[in-house]
Structures are given as C-alpha cells and as structure tokens.
Amino acid sequence: MTQKITPSTALLLTIAPLMWAGNAIVGRSINTLVPPLTLNFFRWSIAAIILLPFASWIFRRNSALWTHWRRFALLGLLGVGLYNSLQYLALKTSSPINVTLVAASMPVWMLMIGSMFFGVRVSAKQALGALMSIAGVLLVLSRGELQQLLALRLVPGDILMILAAIIWSFYSWLLTLPKDPAQIRANWIAFLLAQVAFGAVWSGAFSAAEWTFTDPHIVWGWPLIAALIFVAIGPAIIALRCWGLGVQRVGPTVAGFFSNLTPLFAALMSAAFLGETPHLYHGLAFLLIVGGIVVSSRH
Questions:
Q1: Measuring CA to CA, how many Å separate 7 from each of 118, 119, 246, 254, 294?
Q2: CB-based contacts of 247: which residues, under 8 Å, 6+ apart?
Q3: How confident is the model over 84-113, as pLDDT tens digits?
Q4: Is residue 161 a contact partner of residue 103, using CB atoms and an 8 Å limit?
Q5: Residue among 196, 181, 178 at smallest CA distance from 75
Q6: Can you tell me the distance from the alpha carbon of 130 to that of 112, in angstroms, rounded to the nearest whole number?
Q7: Rounded CA gap, 13 and 18, in Å?
C-alpha cells in the first residue's frame, strides 16, 4: 500500500463517489415504493446473483472462505449490511442536504479511527486536507450562502448517517489488514462476492425485522425494477470494487477524502434533474475538495 495517487487510482476513487451520489438520488426517489431495509436486501441479493456465476467456487466445501468466515461476515456486516441500511433509513427520515452534510464527515472519522484503533499517525497535511475538503462540501451544501448552513438542524436521520460514516470508516480500515486468503484476495470478484454473500444474509435479517415490527409495503413497477438494477450494479458492484482497490493502493485516510466528492456529484446530478445550471460555488467547491485530496496525500 502506497500513499502516492496515480491517475488510475484517482479514477477508481472518483468512480465510487459518483456511483454513490446516484445511489442517494435514486434511493430518495423510490423511498415511497419500497421500505429502506428491504431495498438494501434486494440490492445486495441481486448483486450476489450477478457475481455468483463468476466466482461460485468460493462456496465449495474445501474453500478458504469457510476457514475465514468470521472475517468476511464482519466485512459483509459493516460494508454491506449496516452502512447501506443506515443510509437508506437516513434518506427516509432526513433531508438530502442534511444526509450529505453528515456523510461529509467521513475523512474526519477515517483519520480518528485510523489513529485510535489502527495506530496510524495523523499528519498536519492530512488535517489541513480534511479542513479544505470539508470546506468545499459545506460550500456546496450551503449553495454559497451562510444563512442556509446556519439554518441546518440535526434530526434522527442525521444521527444514523453519523453512525454509518463511523461504520464505513472501520470497514475501510479493515480492508487494509492482510487477513484474507490469497486465493480469494487475488480474485476481485471472489473477494467481493464473499463480502456481498454475507452482507445479503445480514440485510435479509434486517429486512425480516422490518416486516415483523413495521407495516411496510412495496409498489412494484418499472421505476422500482430499474432502480434496483442500477443500485445493484453501479453503487454496489462497480463502486465497491473501485473503492476496495483504491483503498488497497493508497489507504483509507487518503481514500476517505475522495468520499467528499459524493455531495458535489449529488448536487450536480440534482441540478441536472431539476434543470438548473451549475453555479460558481460548484467550481470553487470542486477546487477545495480536490485541493484537500492533493494536500493530504503529499508526504
């Protein structure tokens, strides 16, 4: 693992937040069609079915998956089951701008958790990079107006996103630990399927609880089907692959700064869907966020 960002690594870590921004918009748009925990279960079940033909061998009796099942069960719980469930729950109870704002704290949690639990020292440049990157996010979310930022208030959904950000930070750091069987780790589809399979089981348990203790409903139709296909392929398979590979190359601390591109992409996508044109503050925010990434990655 190196701290140097190459163009290919930057592309990987940019694709992931681009997909996640689309996930937030789609998840918000269909929150009346399917309950949040069930949406997460459908999403990862479809992803597992897509990956299965390419790496079904990991489920053989003599596979190293079974001797390391606790490792993959934990990765599946954190990165697939909990994080995404909490995100969809947050979109149900909180406004998109608040959810995006809270998620923007990701680099800070990456730095804190890396320092507290994984023995990684936080440099002054990383701290400065975090401040620059978050400033860019705040600029987008406030639309360049301080009054909008001061008017924000935390609601239960925001608390869920704080918890989700912490969970994703732990997940990202765990990816860097050399505890996976070489045969599975060397095959990205197998490595992803091992996590997704356990994550789908966790998501299924959460969905079962949702149907047991609440009164959910599903509105089937092409809008929901198209949304499920998108969230299963783009924000799930493609984004998780790009993020995992990027984290292996530069580490969670540097990768965490790229997650702040998510609200910028989300703002641009929302503007496109609403027919609004980009503003000057979008460009300034982009420079701050990218500047934070560059500063934090320098030795």
A1: 27, 28, 11, 14, 12
A2: 172, 175, 176, 255
A3: 899 889 888 776 666 766 777 777 788 889
A4: yes
A5: 196
A6: 11
A7: 9
